[in-house]
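User: Please run a holo structure prediction.
Assistant: Happy to. Please share the sequence and the ligand.
User: Here you go; the ligand is iron/sulfur cluster.
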Amino acid sequence: MNPELEQILSRAQTLYEDVDYKAVAEWKSYAPGRRAIGYLPIYVPRELIHAAGMLPVGIFGGGDRLEIIRGDAYFQSYICHIPRSTVELALSGRLDVLDGMLFPSICDVIRNLSGMWTMLFPGRYVRYVDLPQNYDARVGGEFWRRELTAIREDMARLAGGQITDRNLRNSIRIYNQNRRAIRELYQARSEAPWLYPIAQVYAVLRAGSVLPPEEHTTMVRRYLEMASQESTLPEDRSRVVLTGMFCEQPPLALLITLERAGCWIVDDDLLLGLRWFTGEVPEEGDAIENLAQAYLTQSVPTASCYAPDGQRGRWLVDAVRQNRADGVIFCAPSFCDPALLEQPMLVAALEREHIPHTQFKYSEDTGQFAVIREQAGTFSDSIRLWSEA
Ligand code: SF4
């Protein structure tokens, strides 16, 4: 492996394993007064944090790298895992490096977590980010403009300064560059998945949740260039789209297991908030208006978003066609309401188009993969046989 590629992957892996957020503490230590704001999945307008000179930090639970000692006591058993490990991270002091937290409206679990945060950590900045559910510019658009303005004021106050229009436009430009690089990575992987294994792509992508966006864009671009020069040969595997992983993240070993079972992952919804917009947010004009409009018209389709045309599932069929996928694996966290309630509508859309699919559930700390490997392997073999029939 090219030494630079090795170096990029080693850095990304270190960041992935860092449940103590040492990279955030390090970033803050470079200059006095630096601040960092955490956010839960899926989407928050990171541009507003960045424009205030602060570091946005994605909190994706503790994965399989954290022992839950106190977090379980706060939740009933029939609930997903990410809130437990997030509470554990906070109670163990690992999130003390953060100067505030944003909880976007994705499901009741995260909404309630924002309330728990207020009670557990009085005095710390907490905001529930109420995303629009109505996509009419005069209703949801106006609502979201007001929310964005309020968050902008909060971020400026926390940073102890102002967010000028110029700063905000600059942050939009920087995040456009970042999302563009990630889109290019996804496109390259779709074309030659054997050059961009899921473990590498995921670690590089995940680094974007803790690195400043400028640094992350450089990492993604260097990775793209270095990985494209590897001499790995293609193998005969099934091309699959993974869906359902937009919030609680699966263990890396689970993703690797899917590849070892004979699948090439050609599209997925992992860490979806890092590439939330399907196109560019305009960089000139009214920045708040541009962010609001982008949310209404360019958000990626996912379970937590309103589908104004009522055609839930069309996007998944499109993702299969655009990526020349052979099938879909529904891979959702146990007890995840948004993913699992949408699944029957997505299954119906796939079945109308005769697209093969299978499904299983996971938890971020799942440790047994034998059954998943057998299931994914059987699925992969069977769709290859069907497509050759
Ligand atoms: S995994 Fe699903 S249910 Fe749990 S917090 Fe995330 S979106 Fe909500």
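The radius of gyration is 20 Å.
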